[in-house]
Design brief:
mainly alpha; Four Helix Bundle (Hemerythrin (Met), subunit A); binds heme C
């Protein structure tokens, strides 16, 4: 009996931790990514390498979470979200390498490629397709 109870409690705790990432968390991460993108653009325009590098780091840490997709109102699979995340990380690293090499045009091109990943996914949000 005691064992069953412990088992049930463990399952409940696991279920809670799986559901811990909700819509508010997602919005929070999205807003962090938006702010990071603005930071990167600002850094490129103000010729401020440090700002770009900070933006890249913030973007990378927030984008780790976006593979968790809300089911039902979304028109994408977790696999799609995962590949978008991977692309964001790849292009963010390119922005970093470009800015470290002092190549602002190249950095801006890879910045746009990051933005394209955001838009590709946003085009699949059912409630946004009116
Ligand atoms: C794999 C899918 C996916 C990717 C990739 C993605 N988003 Fe989102 N984004 C969403 C979803 C889903 C929502 C809607 C959240 C909601 O309202 O529940 C959203 C909403 C947003 C919002 C609005 C948040 C709010 O408070 O209403 C912003 C801003 C945003 N995303 C920025 C970004 C940026 C910047 C990137 C790229 C760096 C990005 N997103 C990439 C899925 C994605």
């Amino acid at each position: 009996m005691k064992k069953t109870l412990t088992g049930l409690l463990t399952i409940a705790a696991l279920a809670l931790s799986v559901q811990a990432y909700d819509q508010n968390d997602r919005r929070q991460d999205m807003q962090t990514m938006e702010a990071s993108m603005a930071q990167i653009q600002k850094g490129i325009l103000y010729n401020n390498k440090k700002l770009v590098l900070q933006g890249v780091e913030n973007l990378k840490s927030a984008s780790q979470n976006i593979q968790i997709a809300p089911k039902g109102d979304m028109d994408y699979t977790p696999a799609f979200a995962k590949s978008q995340t991977k692309n964001i990380l790849v292009y963010a690293d390119k922005v970093k390498a470009n800015i470290e090499a002092g190549k602002k045009h190249a950095a801006a091109k890879n910045y746009t490629k990051v933005l394209d990943q955001c838009i590709s996914c946003h085009n699949k949000i059912r409630k946004w397709n009116q």
